[in-house]
Design goal:
Blueprint lengths: L2 E4 L2 E7 L1 H18 L6 E6 L3 H10 L5 E11 L6 E6 L9 E9 L3 H11 L5 E9 L12 E5 L5 E2 L15 E4 L3
Parallel strand pairs: 3-4, 3-6, 6-7, 7-8
Antiparallel strand pairs: 1-2, 2-10, 4-5, 9-10
The protein binds guanosine-5'-monophosphate and magnesium ion.
Magnesium ion binds next to strand 6.
């Protein structure tokens, strides 16, 4: 266990790089089996999923494509509340098997909006792959077929995930220490 400080907060190692890679390889093996012959399009959601997407793709051995998108969220009118927009999707996904690659599903609201936006483009199938899932925080029903790891409700950083934009470069995952 090692402790690090990022800005005003202290974090402690909770999942090592070796454990992460073992779980990522397992997800890739399932994808290799399920998506064989389907030429899936992996859509990695920036910024948080860059490290997961990179490692996952190294274990994926079937023909596939990868592209990167961003979800921009801004305040809409009072009646519509938060409005989300999908940026950077240049591929035509109609009739394709799409696998969303996310860093973490917390309440699930971001994923729900993403699914709504992608569904309008008529893919053949929409699948969710997330590095981390907090089952205790999930507020919306989601069919998450490919979750590498389930974690408690604590705030984590590292392996692509940030605290105030810091810590994305850490190789291990760290949990916030409540002081
Ligand atoms: P959701 O919409 O599922 O509640 O969460 C969406 C976003 O919140 C994630 O994509 C991620 O950016 C952020 N998030 C949720 N939990 C954590 C966490 O424990 N650590 C970090 N760094 N970000 C989180
Ligand atoms: Mg994310």
């Amino acid at each position: 266990m090692s402790r690090i400080k990022i800005k005003d907060k202290t974090f402690e190692t909770s999942i090592t790089e070796a454990e992460i890679l073992e779980k990522v390889e397992r997800v890739a093996a399932k994808l290799n089996k399920d998506m064989e012959g389907k030429n899936p399009l992996f859509l990695a959601v920036l910024n948080g999923s860059f490290m997961y997407a990179s490692d996952l793709m190294k274990f994926v051995t079937i023909p596939c494509e990868i592209s990167f998108v961003r979800v921009a969220s801004y305040d809409g009118t009072e009646s519509s509340g938060k409005v989300a927009e999908l940026l950077g999707l240049n591929e035509d996904i109609e009739g394709r098997e799409v696998v969303i690659v996310e860093d973490i599903v917390d309440t699930g609201n971001t994923m729900k909006r993403m699914l709504e936006m992608l569904r309008k483009k008529n893919p053949a199938g929409l699948h969710i792959s997330t590095l981390l899932l907090k089952p205790g925080k999930l507020q919306v029903p989601l069919d998450i077929e490919y979750a590498a790891m389930e974690i408690p409700n604590d705030f984590i950083v590292g392996y692509g995930l940030d605290y105030d934009q810091q810590g994305r470069n850490l190789r291990d995952i760290y949990t916030l220490v409540q002081e």
